[in-house]
Amino acid sequence: MPALPSLRQLGYLVALAERLNFREAAEAQFVTQSTLSAGIKELESTLGVQLVERDKRNVRMTAVGEETVARARALIAAANDLAEVARIARSPLTGELRFGAIPTIAPFLLPEVLPPLRRTHPALKLYLREDLTERLVERLRAGSLDIALIALPFDTAELHVHELFRDEFWFVAREDDAAAREKEIAVRKLKPADVLLLEEGHCLRDHAIAACGPRRGAWHSTVEATSLYTLIQMVEGGLGVTLLPEITLKAGILKNTKLVARPFTAPAPARTLALVARRTTARLRDVELLAEIILESRRRSGRTGIPGLRSKAPASGR
Q1: Which end of the chain is more exposed for a tag (fewer CB within 10 A), N or C?
Q2: CB atoms < 10 A from the CB of 84, how many?
Q3: How many CA atoms lie within 13 A of 303 on its CB side?
């Protein structure tokens, strides 16, 4: 068997790639600069390739160095998962859990989930990060997150996916909008120029565009919002209409506004909420338990549906 790199050496390389500074990388690894430099040289010797370009002014990763860093992150994450297996098997949902959620879910779903989670699992120390889907998935794969709550469809290749529930889109407009007089809205009648969306990078934008059918090339609004709350203000200001997920309406996002929500005709466009994690993680049992808590909290809160959803009766934000 050929000589293999150590996890410590790989950790040194990842730290250097993230900072491109030997002193800062050494501080992050709690070693001296000479120790880190020697470790990387040993790694290069073991692999037989140059990973880092060094001179007095700059530090750069070579092409093979970049590839090695990507694989090193995955190996370190898998090793950390391995170390957690025994502890988690004995006591699920305990210790530190690094949990991510996207901004179009976190403020609308987590407030009803976190209180029962704390009551039933007081030994759990939850670190919550809110970010866009792409960055959460990157952190999952790199090992800096354990579990993330996202919306599908999204590329979750190589990840464990536990689907939770379908989250339908609703049409939202001002009370005086002509379409608001309808009890239900046909997606095909939406005019791309009238629909306000979140800015690029939000998966909810992509979901909304996909929900509106094959006219994807036409959905280029000159006015875009950075958050759902900004989107609501823009609609209330008369700049257009929008599509909002059902969980945001149940959480009262239209409270104290003059906006109304109308369901779409069947089949209603929707996204699917899901918990995702690395397949190698020791937290797969935690994923199952979190899913149970999320679904149970929704049942107990009575937020399994918007009143009038089945009969298609109007839902007002007032």
Answers
A1: N
A2: 16
A3: 23
Q: Which residues contact 181 (CB under 8 A, 6 or more apart)?
A: none
Alpha helices, DSSP H only, in 147-256? 203-211, 228-236, 246-250
Amino acid at 1: M
Query: What is the domain extent for residue 121?
Result: 92-164+273-301
Which residue, among 68, 76, 82, 77, has the nearest Cα to 7 in the 3D structure? Answer: 76
What is the C-alpha to C-alpha distance for residues 192 and 265, in angstroms, rounded to an integer? 18
Instruction: Report CA-CA distances (Å) from 268 to 35, 70, 170, 172, 312.
Output: 60, 40, 8, 14, 11
Q: What is the pLDDT of residues 153-189, one digit of tens each?
A: 999 988 999 999 999 999 999 999 988 888 899 988 8
Q: 256 in a domain, yes or no?
A: yes
Where is 174: in which H helix or E strand?
Answer: strand 159-174
Q: Which CATH number covers residue 150?
A: 3.40.190.10
The model's pLDDT over 58-75, given as tens digits with 9 standing for 90+, comes to: 899 999 999 999 999 989
Q: Are 105 and 247 in contact (CB under 8 A)?
A: yes
